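Fold this: CoA transferase
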Amino acid sequence: MTAKQKKATGPLAGLKVLDLSQIMAGPYCTMVLGDLGAEIVKIEKPGSGDDSRQMGPYVDGESASFAHINRNKLGVVLDIKSERGREIVHQLAREADVVVENFRVGVTERLGVDYKTLSALNRRLIYCSISGYGQTGPYAKKGGFDLVAQGATGIMSITGEPDGRPLKSGIAIYDVGAGLTATYSILAARIHQLQTGEGQHIDISLAECGLPWFAWEAAAYFTKGIVPRATGSRHRFDAPYQAFKTGDGFLVLGAANQRSWERLCRDVLGRSDLVEDPRFLTNSERMDNIDQLEPILEAEFAKRDAATWIELCTAASVPCGPINDFHQAMNDPHYLARDMVMEVDHPVFGRMKVIGIPAKFSKTPGDIRLAAPTMGRDTDAVLEDLGFTPEQIKDLRVSGVVQ
């Protein structure tokens, strides 16, 4: 254990990860690994560090964006472009189980920190590359951006209201998706590594990671040639399954199966006539006549406030819930009870709140042991662990190799 932190007790305790990534996709992956107990050594470039440090909001010049995605990591500032810096990366790679990088394709080869080079030093090494379009193919040399991936893969064409402007997801869904895809891929490779002693190269494409999420859309397209379009909050195949306006705001309703539909009509709305209405007898007919069904239901929901309708739907076992803003979600008693808001001590932010860990382990729970590093916080400690003397570290600092 290099820095002053609690001993890792999570299921990945003992796993050593060298993090050469920045911005979001790679750092999200290594954050998850760190939350589950892995030791993460994060390398940043001298001067500006990880580019996410230039993203606000700021407190005393420190980026909150960086801090919220780089917890449980040891921070080292190192000039990988220098020969001595590259040698230090090689030393770290010899001891690592995993390397994660998200440079543009070809950059790691120029820097001498590519899979071929590092795996020659450590045959057990799992080397995960996250790029915009993967290591091969016509677009391989292009940079990767969440917004561009959302546009290129079709998700923006099905998000928003019909005939409206294309809309991106409210969060960086492809960055996070690539990070999660990298995470489970690394864990699969880890099993192979433990069984055989072999490492391997994992090639993750930002754009491709979201394509498997188009499950229902792919079913319609590949069987019937149906190209999905934007449907607002409506479900593509089930009704009513969408947002509805009430007397004081909106709620979401998921009365998609026949049992829930009938309970909604009889027990919640007191409209048994809708159950017998030939336009709405089955889910297929409700979908065919959704433009007629929606205003009927919305007229009913307008008679009371959202909280009342949610209470009535819950009592009748009809899936229903509020549309919270982020403040409401972060103060929801359920999420608070399940530790989805946690705190960690940071030298600039003080006692800062962060999103908790969603996976709950009965025997090896994850933990937030360490706040995100300030620039170069753990450089000396990591170098000392590699066997560098104080004089050697001072020389590296004077020469600009480390910071």
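DSSP finds 18 helices and 13 strands in the chain. The CA atoms of residues 78 and 147 lie 30 Å apart.
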